[in-house]
UniProtKB/TrEMBL annotation:
<protein>
    <recommendedName>
        <fullName>HTH merR-type domain-containing protein</fullName>
    </recommendedName>
</protein>
<dbReference type="Pfam" id="PF13411">
    <property type="entry name" value="MerR_1"/>
</dbReference>
<dbReference type="InterPro" id="IPR000551">
    <property type="entry name" value="MerR-type_HTH_dom"/>
</dbReference>
<feature type="domain" description="HTH merR-type">
    <location>
        <begin position="15"/>
        <end position="58"/>
    </location>
</feature>
<dbReference type="InterPro" id="IPR009061">
    <property type="entry name" value="DNA-bd_dom_put_sf"/>
</dbReference>
Amino acid sequence: MQLARYYPDDLLNADQAADHAGVRPSTIRQWHHRGLLHPAIPGDGRTTRHLYGRQDVDAAIAELARREAEREAAWQRAA
């Protein structure tokens, strides 16, 4: 990830990213720990928070939708 591709308004903390994605902040943290979403600016976990790129959040949502569609298609083939 290159910081130069982000505008300040495109950087979201976990709460803002959750609002943008329509999920809870704990889901954003889960996506991060599972490697689906990487912070554009890593925080230290104590005094500074991770900042996520809006387009990275959108990409994570798209990836999850793709995975769900694949699972649904596999389920339909098996039925």
